């Protein structure tokens, strides 16, 4: 674990590395809890994430989103993405925040969160349940559950909100 990291905007050349962090983080975080091994071990899992990130970084429909990556010694180890809530553009939606497990506790998650969310605007996110580490991280950064729960693809998530500061 290193405390020396760089946060920077994502670029299309990062797609493969972003997808790899995304897939690895899901496997580290959700195996045995929220996501079935069938999904996590699917041969299409990594290619589907690569397609998603290629679109997120190049398609004009995603232009309002902020995507940032974290690097340690040139290796991509974290990703974050936020964008406006459709119909409520004054609210930010944190849709992605993952840091490789070996770099948890180094401040990378906080730096990514701060890089994609404007503290002067309210923000919302969905967090897996149960994923106590992530829920605690978001509470530490001012997010509170608002009682809204959704279940999609057998994954239970809680909505958390943070007021503008």
SSE blueprint and pairings:
Blueprint: E1 6-9, H1 15-30, H2 37-40, H3 45-58, E2 66-72, E3 75-85, E4 88-99, H4 108-116, E5 123-128, H5 132-140, E6 144-152, E7 155-162
Parallel strand pairs: 4-5
Antiparallel strand pairs: 1-2, 2-3, 3-4, 5-7, 6-7
List keywords for this structure.
single chain, about 160 residues, alpha+beta, seven-stranded mixed sheet
Structure write-up:
- The protein has helices at 15-30, 37-40, 45-58, 108-116, 132-140; strands spanning 6-9, 66-72, 75-85, 88-99, 123-128, 144-152, 155-162.
- It is α+β, with helices and mostly antiparallel strands and 165 residues long.
- It has a seven-stranded mixed β-sheet, with helices on both faces.
- The protein starts with 5 loop residues before the first strand and ends with a strand.
Neighbour order of strands in the largest sheet: 1-2-3-4-5-7-6
Low-confidence stretches: none
How confident is the prediction overall: mean pLDDT? 95
Number of strands: 7
Radius of gyration over all CA atoms, rounded: 15 Å
Spell out the helices and strands N to C: EHHHEEEHEHEE
Quaternary organisation: single chain
Which percent bin holds the helix content? Answer: 25-40%
Brief write-up:
The chain contains 5 helices and 7 strands.
């Amino acid at each position: 674990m290193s405390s020396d990291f760089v946060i920077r905007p994502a670029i299309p050349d990062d797609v493969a590395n972003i997808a790899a962090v995304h897939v690895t983080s899901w496997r580290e975080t959700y195996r045995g809890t929220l996501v079935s091994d069938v999904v996590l071990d699917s041969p299409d899992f990594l290619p589907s994430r690569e397609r998603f990130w290629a679109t997120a970084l190049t398609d004009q429909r995603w232009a309002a989103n902020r995507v940032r990556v974290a690097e340690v010694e040139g290796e991509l180890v974290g990703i974050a993405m936020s964008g406006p809530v459709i119909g409520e553009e004054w609210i930010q939606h944190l849709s992605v925040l993952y840091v490789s497990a070996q770099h948890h506790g180094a401040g990378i998650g906080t730096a990514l969160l701060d890089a994609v969310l404007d503290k002067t605007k309210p923000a919302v996110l969905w967090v897996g349940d149960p994923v106590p580490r992530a829920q605690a991280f978001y509470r530490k950064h001012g997010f509170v559950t608002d009682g809204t729960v959704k279940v999609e693809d057998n994954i239970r998530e809680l909505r958390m909100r943070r007021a503008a500061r």
